[in-house]
Amino acid sequence: MKNYIKYLVFIVLLPLTGISQQMLNLEDAIAEALKSNYDIQLAENSLIQADNNKSVYNSGYLPTVTANADARYNSSNAKITDQQGNERNIDGIQTSGYGASVGLNYVLFNGGGRKYQYDKLKNLYALSSLQKKTQIENTLIDVYTTFYNLARSQEQKRTIEEAFYISKERLQRVTVQQEYGQKTKLDILNAKVDANKDSINLINISVSVENNRRNLNFLLGREISTEFTVDSDVVLDSNLSYIELLSKLKSNNNELKQLELNQSITQQDLRINQAGWLPSVTTNVSYGYNYNDNGPAGFLAEQQTTGLSAGLNLSWNLFDGGVTKVRVQNAKIAMKTQELNKQKIQLNLENQLATFWAEYTTQKAIIENEKINVEVSNQNFLKSKELFNLGKITSLDFRQAQLNLINTKLNLLNATYNAKIAELQLKRFAGYLVG
Questions:
Q1: Residues 352, 215 share a domain
Q2: Is 58 inside any structural domain?
Q3: Do residues 337 and 269 touch, judged by C-beta distance below 8 A?
């Protein structure tokens, strides 16, 4: 049995032996995530694309300029009859020509559609900027949560390691006492079972530590197997106010800001579609050069022209089969849908804020109670340990005191980290996480 316990301890502590682990604090983790997280980098690429799309080069406000050139050659035989009936055969008539021109085309007016489309592209860029900010918020809350879950599991492991050490010590003491007739075989079996339970708990929590560490490495965009520990200190913000958080949610929440921009974009879609009912006016200007060699059969032997030409064109689609009408109707419905969606999401966000506030305040109350419980349980355990060593209480009574201390310590850890995570969620809804 002793060898079995030693083997379990070796397995649990193996990842930590021979390794000098980096201590990672929260500020460094956040800085690394902002720099290397893949989701944030993808959001940045989307923002760059949106910036390109809102460029004046994609606006339709600039003219188009085209250049054309051509060359011609023809070889043929001709039979010519004049007005008097005289015939003449000409073989191998060769004609040629070439020309070039430069033209400029510009849309003067297209029902305002160009303006609304350009405004839409600007809003789409602003929307991408908010989406990037939201992605940063989501990544940060994931980093915070995983960081504190890792810190929690580290502290839980320390507590369970202490329990495992005490259980080993108890088993050794009971074994010696049994040799002197002070304990029974049943006492040894109970001590072995409790030591096994603690060793299994230690293995499970070690797996949890490794899983949380890998998850945090992934969020930080670095090698998954990187070994490190985290700073487990937790400081709760005592200045949070539910009324202030609710006010900030309504004015500063990124999800609501995105909804407002989507409403504006939908309104611009309506105007773009309505522009289909109006005429469009375009102008074009070109300058060209043309040369023709008409050969011996032509009235003119050669012809050369250069010149400037300009034109104005008005186009009005008086009836397009009702396509524009349907698009306008759908755009109006989309605007109503956006408004309903905004009201729904705002109510949902307020509900989530209230839920996290309840979680936050509840866990804070639990923390204060568990601090008292830990102090009382620790005193009870120390007294029980003294009485157990003197043989005045049973090993089961001692184990119960030990379990009470373990559970109160774990409850205090859970309440502390749960309160911190709820606090961060509240700040995310209020738009505090990203400046």
A1: yes
A2: no
A3: no
Has residue 303 got a pLDDT over 80?
Answer: no
Q: Which amino acid is at 196?
A: N
Statement to judge: residues 83 and 19 lie in one domain = no
Given this model, what pLDDT does residue 16 score?
A: 45
d(CA 380, CA 372): 12
The predicted structure's pLDDT at residue 292: 81
HSE value, Cβ hemisphere, 13 Å, CA-based, for 394: 8
Q: Where are the alpha helices (DSSP H) in 253-300?
A: 254-274
How far is residue 236's CA from residue 14's CA, in Å, rounded to a whole number?
34
Nearest to 363 by CA among 420, 314, 324: 420
* CA dist 56 → 48, 63, 123, 282 (Å): 15, 11, 14, 19
Residues 179 and 325 in one domain: yes
Do residues 257 and 296 both lie within one domain? no
Distance (Å, whole) CA 189 – CA 195: 10
- Percent above pLDDT 90 for the chain: 72
Report residue 82's pLDDT band, with 50, 70 and 90 as the boundaries.
low
CA geometry: angle 362, 367, 371, nearest 5 deg = 155
Give the domain extent around 286. 63-109+280-315
Number of domains in the chain: 2
Q: Which residues of 176-189 are buried (b: 16+ CB within 10 A; e: fewer)?
A: ebbeeeebeeebbe
> Beta strand pairing status for 280-293 and 64-81?
unpaired
Task: Specify if 130 maps to a domain.
Answer: yes
Helix (H, G, I), strand (E, B) or coil at 23: strand
Q: How confident is the model at residue 185 (pLDDT cuts 50, 70, 90)?
A: confident
Q: Are strands 228-230 and 22-24 parallel, antiparallel or unpaired?
A: parallel
- Report the predicted TM-score, pTM, of the whole model to 2 decimal places: 0.85
> For residue 376, what are its two tokens?
């009382």
Please tell me the distance from the alpha carbon of residue 399 to that of residue 191, in angstroms, as a whole number: 9
pLDDT digits (tens, 9 = 90+) for 49-64: 999 999 999 988 999 9
* Whole-number Cα distances in Å, 121 to 60, 90, 134, 255, 271: 12, 64, 20, 19, 14
Between residues 357 and 18, the one the model is more confident about: 357
Q: Is residue 52 part of a domain?
A: no
